[in-house]
Amino acid sequence: MTNNNNILDVLTYMFDYLFEVAEEEVNEIDDITLKARLSDAGFEVTRIDKALSWLENIATLQDGNIQLSGHSNGGMRIYSDDEKSKLNAKSRGFLLFMENIGQVDANQREMIIDQVMSLNDATLSLDDLKWVVMMVLGNSNDQEISPQWLESIMSPDDNYTVQ
């Protein structure tokens, strides 16, 4: 694996590795071992550090220690031009769908958007957005998320388009 410039690539590989380790019933992975594994896989140290920092930011947001700029309690979400350029209509539709079915509340939606905007990618695919949603919801203290539900949101290309 070479030239892994995408933080989500690092996170995806890391979660696959952590799930693999969990199946082997290893109790704990320290940061040094995790970073070494990611480095051995060909990820740059700076990308690894950014990915871990990105995850720490989710935990901080969950703890309520950071105030989100777009935070709202329900109502209509108006996306900025920068947000629209990073999240296409299908991705925005997916977030609206998740909120309408009660799987994402307004605060979690804002956390997801904040995390998306912190990624270096110019645009984000719907599949990448689904990974971000899974990571934010998977780290949520608010509710129990079933593994089956998390897998279901990764289903191939559903039609969620908004204007």
Automatic annotation (TrEMBL):
Coiled coil: none annotated. It comes from the Bacteria. Belongs to the Smg family. The lineage of its organism: Bacteria, Pseudomonadati, Pseudomonadota, Gammaproteobacteria, sulfur-oxidizing symbionts. It comes from Bathymodiolus thermophilus thioautotrophic gill symbiont. Pfam families: DUF494 (PF04361). InterPro entries: Smg. PANTHER family: PROTEIN SMG. This is Protein Smg homolog.
